[in-house]
Task: structure prediction
Amino acid sequence: MSTPESAGDPAAQISLEQVRHVAELARLAMSDEELESCRGELASILRHIATIDAVDVDGVEPLAHAIDMSNRLSDDEPAESLSIDDVLANAPALEDRFIAVPKVLDPGADE
Result:
């Protein structure tokens, strides 16, 4: 297996402009000092990717899971469901004959 150094190190060639472009794509406002710091971090990430890319995977079958898995399926058969009164009896809060739940949407989201 070759190392990223022996194959050339593309990570060492990352320019500050390229890092700035990536930051803009991610909608990040960054100072030049932060960009320079991220330049080193991005270079490190690319070196790791180059190391992984150097691994010979010829003949290796792609996997969806590390272990053989199968779904346990049962027949879908209709059954008696709970009555509305039973369901409402277990609800933590009610409004009339409905289950009350907290709001999950921002009321100002329409603006």
User: Anything to note?
Assistant: Residues 77 and 96 are 32 Å apart (CA to CA).
